[in-house]
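just leaving the lab so this will be short. what follows is a protein written twice so to speak, once as letters and once as structure tokens for the fold. can you read through it and tell me how you think this chain folds. thanks a lot i owe you, the record is right below.

___
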Amino acid sequence: MDQLLQNLKVHINEKIFVKDPESSDLGKRIISNSIVMIHEIGFEHFTFKKLGHQIGSNESSIYRYFENKHKLLIYLTSWYWGWLEYQLVIEIMNIPAPTNKLTRAVEIITQPIEQDSKFEHIDEVLLNKIVIAEYSKSYLTKEVDEENKEGYFTIYKRLVERVKDMILAVRPDYPYPSSLSSTILDGALHQHFLKDHFKSLTDCNEQVSPTDYFKHLVFQTLK
């Protein structure tokens, strides 16, 4: 199993990139350095020119991988959701009881992220911080409907579907499983953001984690 996981690749919709960044050392450096840079200066101030300077390459070389920084952000967030899906599938595959399976799923989705050594060029901890702060910018655009049709958000939607199925396994007659599932995924990001930046707007703090809140929310709702 460990050897199999070492060869794992998160598959991203090929329409998002011009050239697969996983296919070359330069592409991997583009990904790893863009994560660090976006985390440090924010997506608004991030440019391919700055990234090119950081990695010692021409700005034009980055455009050979991504059409624009919006597509790069979609790639990074898609990779994150794919990696989280992989964590979820591995962790719950041997849990038979539906309630225990959903509990573990909520924990995985809402808990702080730890570094995964299987992907050396990607800092999952920093990427998680980017997703918390920047994910909404990948879809709050005029092009969202067209990009959705092109399958840009397939991995995220598939993850919502997985959690929805686990919700229905616990309570088959629950009428709003998709809404609850997407609330867990998006709400976890929001609660982490509030905990760090708008402390008066959340009950999550050093003693109460977003995981505590969402386990309470989910299982009170499904009673």
In short: Residues 13-221 form a domain with the Tetracycline Repressor; domain 2 fold (CATH 1.10.357.10). Residues 161 and 178 are 7 Å apart (CA to CA).
